[in-house]
């Protein structure tokens, strides 16, 4: 990735410390207990001290960083950045290319996570920190009562959804959520989609591709026939449905048990996690919902030391253990099994939870985000919100066409070169 696709950053390590001089780094992150994680680094590396500056969340942190970049000062040395926001930050010349410092870490991460921080090119805009491989959660008691097994394919899922709703008109195996574009993007990713691509200074947009159309048509069909619900997730109604047994399945991510524990405490011991249903059981694939990297900003005067810290945080056994055990995130590193010895508390009976999660991460397909993901996601909320409300299957692929056009128009208006 070169030139106009992202402004080049200064590769020099300005402010190189003198021998014995202590380097001070600042780190913006919203992950919980990250100050305790960083204490382990500071104790072992007295010459490179990292101070954590807790942020409110991904979007506020991005806005704050972009403001600092535009002002020419005020950015941290190190920044936690959600994968989908990296192209936006790169386009604003906010993230430094650390390929020279950290490029040798590629083998330590799944291809999907590495692609997210390289945008498919030679530059490296961060080190993967945590990932969100998607997983399917289901009520074992409901499945056992109806003689159902965890669905291996999407056809199996549809059949189970119909069976469950027919047996009890109040129960649904899932819902189509028009409020969660990251969820839908993950499902499209599993089907083989990659909504953006970049070649030199030219971007491509493929939101309305065949793979995503397949996903949209599938869910439109299930919504139209009423086999699944059409209400968004993360509402008081949905939270209550998980707890009272009217929602008995959830297509989610590795972090799902924490949400279930908070929303459906009375159902503990009745859920199990499995791989996502597959389009082709002979060629298993997966998608991501969530995840972030640790990046060095272009305003850092200590690029080499910042790169050393983020390599430790995300690849050193001590860093990985602290991420998993203290920050409660799912490390992106392939070799994180030693840090994940016990299943999440909500699924304490499922001893193989992290084995399933590791398989889900391993088969996750690469996916490239674009510099205006916020525009595409907003278009998703609007267009799919109308489609879900209409309950007409034809409105689902039509919503994709709207997303595609809105995204392309925005990129052209912003000055990006678009292929085709």
Automatic annotation (TrEMBL):
Keywords: Cell membrane, Lipoprotein, Membrane, Palmitate, Signal. Coiled coil: none annotated. Residues 1-20 are annotated as: Disordered. PANTHER family: ARABINOSE-BINDING PROTEIN-RELATED, POLYGALACTURONAN_RHAMNOGALACTURONAN-BINDING PROTEIN YTCQ. This is Sugar ABC transporter substrate-binding protein.
